[in-house]
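This section describes the prediction task in plain terms. A model, or a person checking by hand, is given the sequence of a single protein chain and must write out its three-dimensional structure as a string of tokens. No templates, partner chains or ligands are provided. The sample shown here is typical of the held-out split.
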Amino acid sequence: MTETTRIAAFSVLVGIAVLAMKTLAWWVTGSVALLSDALESIVNVATALAALLAVRIAERPADDGHPYGHHKAELFSATLEGVLIILAALFILREAWAAWAEPRAIAAPALGIAITGIASVVNGLWAAYLVSAGRRLSSPALGADGRHLWTDVISSAGVILGIGLALATGWLWLDPLLAALVAVNILWSGAKVIRGSADELMDAAVPAADLARLREIIHENADGALEAHDLRTRNAGRATFVEFHLIVPGEMSVLDAHAICDRIEAALKAEISECTVTIHVEPEHKAKASGIVMT
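The expected answer:
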């Protein structure tokens, strides 16, 4: 079992533990705001399971049916997470509206707030770890899971603060109002997750800073070549695909041109752990006097 899979599996256990605590907090208080918080944790468990499945699929090696690998499975997981987040937000809005029409008293608030606070601390620590691990392991599924948990932490903090205000002022309508605000925050989070996944599913280029670094690496390792142009990139989960045309002198041997390509490819793979490089070698009359000029 790889590190990514182990983290995804443990994320399911963390999600179940947090869900249990938040459900208990809602059960002892009857607060619709705490109910919305617990419902978001149901989404957390579902998305953690989806991330675990996607990570397992993404780690499969390339085969005849999938010659470019299975990396995009993680992107489907992140997209599913965004959809589930939005559905949870809509359900919370429905519950908030019902509670607004008929405000409910909050029972045992101190106990409910304490339980939710502990759950939020657990969520916050795990969210920070997931975001860091997703960046380190180039895993969109882990990163999306961590970013969503951060919105859960923020929502929980708002709920705790709002319940405290409702108890201090006697304004019971603050409870459903906070649930609605939590739902809006969740909707925004879900939309961002879906947008990020859609960009990669549509083969968007790597970020500008990463592209600049790739151009720099090609320039530094292409001694003997004249130019590199038509550089194209895309991400697929943790994999990065790089392709470009390399202009060499017409009289250069295939062996020498191949040696330059090997040198560039090795440098790119040293920079990006899971990188697939495709280089099309062309003679000098194909030069465009653009792109990465070596001379």
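For orientation: DSSP finds eight helices and four strands in the chain.
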